[in-house]
Amino acid sequence: MNNSENNGSQVIVVTSGKGGVGKTTTVANVSCALARMGYKVAVMDLDIGLKKLDLILGLENRVIYDIVQVIEGECTLKQALVKDKRFNHLYMLPAAQTRNKDDITPEQVKALCDEMRKDFHFIFIDCPAGIEQGFRNAISAADKAIVVTNPEVSAVRDADRIIGMLESAQFKDIKLIINRIRMDMVKSGNMLSIEDLLEHLCIELLGVVPEDKNVVVSTNKGEPIILNEKSAAAIAFNNIARRIAGEKVEIPDFSENSSFWSRIKTLFSR
Amino acid sequence: MIDFLKKIYARENSSSRDKANERLRIVLAHDRTGTSTHLIEVLKEEIIEVIKKHVEIDGTPEVTIVHEGRQSALDINIPLKGR
Known about the structure:
The structure holds two protein chains of two kinds.
Chain A: E1 10-15, H1 23-36, E2 41-45, H2 53-56, H3 67-71, H4 77-80, E3 82-83, E4 90-93, H5 106-117, E5 122-126, H6 133-139, E6 144-149, H7 153-168, E7 174-181, H8 183-187, H9 194-201, E8 204-210, H10 214-221, H11 232-244, H12 260-269
Parallel strand pairs in A: 1-5, 1-6, 2-4, 2-5, 6-7, 7-8
Antiparallel strand pairs in A: 3-4
Helix pairs in contact in A: 1-11, 5-6
Chain B: H1 2-13, H2 16-33, H3 37-54, E1 62-68, E2 71-77
Antiparallel strand pairs in B: 1-2
Pfam families (chain A): CbiA
GO molecular function (chain A): ATP binding; ATP hydrolysis activity
InterPro entries (chain A): CobQ/CobB/MinD/ParA_Nub-bd_dom, MinD, MinD_FleN, P-loop_NTPase, ParA/MinD_ATPase
């Protein structure tokens, strides 16, 4: 773990422990945003047997080969990489659907990432849910880790476990993304807040993505949400991408003080 | 009137978020250290037994897990009787 960052390229694993918190959506949108900024980006789907990234990126019809075929020498890496249809600098390495997580090893993933480092600025690894072989494969090659969680007890508990495992694996750079937060519910005392999560998990915050129904619409169409300029989630994913690229971008206050009702509520909650 | 409404609102507020935080605090402490409420009780009893062999205890000893960042420690507080 923590490989020296060869020629400035970064391998970043996106993980969560719990499934369904938005790992794949995060990987897809952050990588699209970085590619739009001009970086060369590769995304690697390591959820072998349960692939999703191709579908989220709308590239499912372009997949010919997969990562297991590359590792087993049935095709070259270049043949397997799927070029994105919108962003010239974005490539996806698909997972295999009919194989399982034990068909590849951490060493093989690491060798593959090392081969990719020379061509890409950022390589994102979409980690499967769980803490078994798939997780070990996904973290083996990474320099940094991003933990995605939701403001919900079971997701926070799993995130904490994952952070502990990343620390045991000597990861020094572990950052948190809080996905699907609803500030109206935080305000009314019915959802864990950003501060609550940071207090429990004690790691650095990389970004906060508000709940946004536009994400479902984009996913239905196989389009990244970042293309929808009006979406709050799009703004958040763009900001996260900029922070990963090293820019200083403040985390905005998502409170909705503008509406009449929320002002009344604030009055009573003082 | 406003105070009354505030009170009702506050009562509703203190509900599920506080409860979630409270439950997480306990469950994360146990997850991180591989301990349980039962184990802490057992530890407490055994530690007290050992201390009692040598010195006199005054008051109620406390054994809890404390945290600093992601590090955990066993906090043992045993008041001793003065002479």
